[in-house]
Specification:
Order of helices and strands: EHEEHEHHEEEEEEE
Shape: globular
Structural class: alpha+beta
Largest sheet: 8 strands, mixed
Number of helices: 4
Strand content: 15-25%
Amino acid sequence: MQACIPISEAELTIESNSIPHDQGEKQEEQSTAILSEPMSLSVVKSAHKEVLGDIYHRQIGMAVWQRPLDEAFEYAQNLMAKAPHFCFKGQQKPQLAANLLGRLLPESKGKQVFIEDVTLLMEMFACLFDQQEVGLRLDVLSKAMCPRFHVDKIPCRLITTYAGAGSEWLHEAHVLRKRLGRGGDAKDHNSGLLNQGRINRLSVGDVALMKGDDWPASQGRGMVHRSPSASNEQPRLFLSLDMV
């Protein structure tokens, strides 16, 4: 894989949070176990799209482009109201996906701006990872797709929320990996979150590239995240892009 978006050099916020050291003997034992494992990955954020190229840095687990949505957000709200069960999944070249969305999405102010934004993200993703086609999922969600903390078994995924609650994620220092997946309580949606750990949330419009467990040389240290709650009264419009 080779990036074609330049690696950014300025106006970055790099996060690598840790748990306070006064949380008791049990917490100290857990923290010590974490420190003995392979290198923790940090999160980098910027208002410039070039930050997405930073996903190629070995120590970066997630790169976040923080941006306003404006007219695309207004259309997203109208889309959820007019088509509350809308779901589009496919493996397409960006321009073909744009044509299909043009026929499938309901008419409303900002529709073309919204389609152009989706197409832009697909083109950027394809460029970053040298892909001819991109796996696209655009969903109006009325419930959490993946309510438990987990790691994706893929190299990398792009996600963004156009309306509603953003995806939730954890800094490595707040994770107990042995409690994720089958090692945790299936009924406990916080399984894998350390005692006194903090849950972070992406904002509406944020574009995040998250490394998964299959990223080369990631040593199985993919970003831990989950879907936020959603309902018919408070839906969310979610987009994800995958390599194919």
